[in-house]
Amino acid sequence: MHCEHARDYIQEWLDGSLEEGQEAALMTHLGACQSCRDEHRAMRALKDDLQRLPAPAVPAGIEQRLFPAPSPFVPRLVAVAAILVMAVALTLTAQWMTPGEQVAAPSPVAQVQLSVEREQKVQVALSAKRELKGVRLTLVLPNNVELAGFPEQREVSWETDLLAGDNRLSLPLIAHSAGSGDLIARIDHNGESREMRVRLVAQVPVTQGWLGPNDVRFTAQTIVM
Amino acid sequence: MATILGFWNKKKNQSVTEQVLGPHIPTLYRFAYRLTQSEVDSEDLLQDLVIKLQGREQELLGLDKPGPWLSKALYRLYVDSRRRRQVRPIPLSDVDSSDGYQRVDEQPGPADSDPAAQHERLKTLELLQRHLSDLPDQQRLIVLMHDVEGYLQSDIADILSLPLGTVKSRLHRARRELRAKLAGTF
């Protein structure tokens, strides 16, 4: 084999396209030719170095930016000022208890009046005594109410982390017909479960909400905007 | 302090575009970076790709090899919208594991444990990167796609709309040039 031929074979070898017989011929030549052996070593080092060239790590959160969920929050956060005029927002606080504590089945901690076919926000504050990873949040809606952006879904569930302290969740709700029913917010974590209920009463537009009785674990206050 | 929960992390029905594109995002991002040499432009390019693919769900679902197809679409977008902003390559001396950059090989070589050898290697890589940027655009791209990112030559030919023989000859020529330039600098 001539050296010129061997140089071509070295490239093919780097490509991974050298056939078995050709590779054997190349190796035989390399065994006898110092110059081609050096070339082979240098080209192999070049390829190794090329494979070590740095590239940035894929940025965190890129998938969320490329494929934003049909979240009610992103567009509606922008529109919130317009909504606030008519919105009845209620802040509820669910105290996350330490493991082992028992919680009685909750009755509605508050009642919120909704106007039919009008988007209104209910804010739920979840208070965790410590950081909680992998908490499953589940919202169950009455038949006449839906979460904006989730048409015809009676139950929406997702996983998230809770930071120690208050974690606020803003729920844009739309009632499609008059009637009352409970919004259930459930938190599951490590086999423990907490639940709170908010009575939703949908009727002709009303702009004021009122509180249900305070629960030991759920305190509520109304903010009428 | 109150924190708005990551509601958008909820389980949701993925769009067809997300289903098809999602698994290829790391590869496409790296390819975009090789094209643009800019992290911001890379993400912009991916964003453009997502927009471009809107309404083409049936086509996406029918793909045998979505990876090369998506790379080709990304490359075309890059060529179409080539607004050249001259960006310096990443200074290799600034690269370490703490700044978010990663190397392709996850097995550090024996030299990595020796600071002097590590320094030499970084110098070599800096030189290599400089020589790479001196190559004609397509030669550089072919080297990056094949030797750095591991694309098959046949896929490169398809993505760049070049005959396979041209890809091969440009790759070989580029390697020879890099080899010669590196040899000249030692």
Summarize the topology.
The complex is a heterodimer of chains A (225) and B (186).
Chain A: H1 3-15, H2 20-32, H3 34-51, E1 55-56, H4 62-66, H5 73-84, E2 88-95, E3 110-115, E4 119-128, E5 132-140, E6 145-147, E7 155-162, E8 165-175, E9 179-189, E10 192-203, E11 210-211, E12 218-224
Parallel strand pairs in A: 2-4, 3-10
Antiparallel strand pairs in A: 2-12, 3-11, 4-8, 5-7, 5-9, 6-8, 9-10
Chain B: E1 3-4, H1 16-21, H2 25-36, H3 39-53, H4 57-61, H5 66-80, E2 101-102, H6 115-134, H7 137-148, H8 153-160, H9 164-185
What does it look like?
The complex is a heterodimer of chains A (225) and B (186). By secondary structure, chain A is α+β, with helices and mostly antiparallel strands. In chain A, 27% of the residues lie in helices and 40% in strands. Chain A is built from five helices and twelve strands. Chain A has helices spanning 3-15, 20-32, 34-51, 62-66, 73-84, and strands at 55-56, 88-95, 110-115, 119-128, 132-140, 145-147, 155-162, 165-175, 179-189, 192-203, 210-211, 218-224. In chain A, the strands form two sheets. In chain A, strands 7-5-9-10-3-11 form a six-stranded mixed β-sheet, with no helix packed on it. A five-stranded mixed β-sheet of chain A has the order 6-8-4-2-12. In chain A, α1 crosses α2, α1 (3-15) packs parallel to α3 (34-51) and α2 packs across α3 (34-51). In chain A, 30% of the residues are buried. With 186 residues, chain B is mostly helical. Chain B is 62% helix and 2% strand. In chain B, α3 (39-53) packs across α5, α5 packs parallel to α8 (153-160) and α8 (153-160) packs across α9 (164-185). Chain B is globular. Mean pLDDT of chain B is 76; it is low at 1-12 and 83-111.
Globally, the shape of chain A reads rod-shaped
Report the helical percentage of chain B.
Answer: 55-70%
Specify the overall morphology of chain B.
globular
Q: Point out poorly predicted stretches of chain B.
A: 1-12, 83-111
Rg over C-alpha atoms of chain A, rounded to the nearest angstrom: 32 Å
Helix content of chain A: 25-40%
According to DSSP, the number of beta strands of chain B is 2
Strand content of chain A: 35-45%
Poorly predicted ranges of chain A = 71-105, 206-225
Order of helices and strands of chain B: EHHHHHEHHHH
Strand content of chain B: under 5%
N-end to C-end Cα span of chain B: 58 Å
